[in-house]
Specification:
InterPro entries: DUF8199, HYC_CC_PP
Strand order of the largest sheet: 2-1-3
Structural class: alpha+beta
Oligomer: single chain
Distance between the termini: 63 Å
Shape: flat
Number of helices: 4
Mean pLDDT: 80
Strand content: 15-25%
């Protein structure tokens, strides 16, 4: 539901650059690249083949904001009981005591299996 509200309220621009009747570049949220040279743009006469179109796609501007007091009494009771029933449903687990958490094994000076010549076959 939150994604639907977010996507319906976004406003963005769509820029298109044409050279003649051929679409050269399309850009959303940025400027479309031009195919005309910078030298041509600097000159007094500009080519009439270059054309840019900008479309602004507007999102929804008006949203209805409801508050808890706008609901009827029955709806408020249902909403509060729903919240409390699910809030108390998910309780955390108790912290467990692990007695060997900080235990480090003793250092081995020699390998006892090799010392006694006992091997698992």
């Amino acid at each position: 539901m939150a994604w639907l509200v977010l996507l319906s309220t976004i406003t963005f621009t769509l820029e298109k650059h044409f050279c003649g009747d051929v679409l050269i570049d399309t850009a959303i949220f940025s400027k479309a690249e031009s195919c005309c040279n910078l030298e041509v743009l600097a000159m007094a006469e500009k080519k009439s083949c270059c054309k840019e179109e900008v479309e602004v796609i507007r999102g929804q501007d008006s949203l209805k904001k409801a508050i808890f007091e706008d609901l009827h009494n029955d709806q408020q009771i249902v909403l509060v009981t729903f919240y409390y029933s699910y809030y108390n449903l998910f309780e955390g687990l108790p912290v467990q005591f692990i007695p060997h958490k900080n235990y480090s094994p003793p250092l081995l000076v020699t390998d006892i299996q090799i010392l006694d010549q006992v091997f698992i076959i």
